[in-house]
Amino acid sequence: MKHAPFIAVEGPIGAGKTTLATMLAEELQLPIVKEIVEENPFIDKFYQSMDDWSFQLEMFFLCNRYKQLKETANEFTEKGKPVVSDYHIYKNLIFSERTLKGIERDKYRQIYHVLTDDLPKPNLIIYIKADLNTLLKRIAKRGRAFEEGIDQGYLQQLIEDYDAAMAELADSPSKPHIITIDGNAVDFVENQEHYEEISSQIKELMI
After folding, report:
1. Structural contact between residues 10 and 126, judged by C-beta atoms closer than 8 angstroms
2. CB 3.0–4.6 Å: which of 9, 71, 171, 189 could bond 21 by disulfide?
3. How far does the chain reach from its first CA to its final CA, in angstroms?
4. pLDDT attached to residue 172
5. pTM for this one?
6. 6 - beta bridge partners?
7. Which one of the listed residues 86, 117, 161, 171 is annotated catalytic?
8. pLDDT digits (tens, 9 = 90+) for 85-124
9. Any alpha helices (H) in the chain, and if so which ranges?
């Protein structure tokens, strides 16, 4: 890899992004950027009424992630220092394209590009791909109250949206290297060999 790695771990809700990102950051002794989720003041209301609270929810996430990535650029990527993140800023478009409609979606797209077009983009993405049953089990296991009763149709659509998004990112100007993990078969938490297979791929790219 020509430049210091900016590693992003991505996947649908419940895929295990933060867990894997944390494990990699600890082993590789890299700083980690974690997205703010539970601190979003609109998240409970969103899951109760997506149509009423989508714009507020998405704007909160966008502004916080923008701030995080500006700080990441100043402290790490612009200085050639590697870093791990448990999200790619592109996820904002993945979610907003599904939750927003009409004028609100158009406005959001404009704001997204104004804020993010000059932000550093990950050059290595670890994409955890998993089916609906796997995600539901992991969501139930972590026990976030606001995710109880999450709409399965919404989650299934996100699975499909993530597949499409990864294909788009692969052809994007930044052309990141994408490692896809089968989250249905690979358990990087309980199976050390599974985790080591993932970390060894990343180490080879960092040489």
Report:
1. yes
2. 9
3. 7
4. 87
5. 0.91
6. 83
7. 86
8. 999 999 999 999 999 999 999 999 999 999 999 998 999 9
9. 17-28, 43-48, 50-75, 91-99, 102-116, 132-142, 152-170, 192-206
Q: Tokens 């089990």 identify what position?
A: 137
Residue 136: other Cβ atoms inside 10 A: 17
Instruction: For residues 204 and 61, give the distance between their C-alpha atoms in angstroms, rounded to a whole number.
Output: 33
Q: Which fold has domain 6-206?
A: Rossmann fold (3.40.50)
Which residues of the chain have a pLDDT value below 70? 1-3, 207
How far is the C-alpha of 97 from the C-alpha of 197, rounded, in Å? 34
Q: Give yes or no for a contact between 169 and 88, defined as CB atoms under 8 angstroms apart.
A: yes
- Torsion over CA: 78, 84, 86, 88 (sign): positive
Grouping H, G, I as helix, E, B as strand and the rest as coil, residue 200 is helix
Give the pLDDT score at 50. Answer: 87
Q: 3 with 80: CB under 8 angstroms?
A: yes
Report domain extents, the chain.
Answer: 6-206
- Whose tokens are 């989250």? That residue is 183
φ and ψ at 10, to 5 degrees? -135, 165
Question: Quick check: is 86 catalytic?
Answer: yes
Q: What is the DSSP string of 47-100?
A: HH-HHHHHHHHHHHHHHHHHHHHHHHHHHTGGGT--EEES--TTHHHHHHHHH-
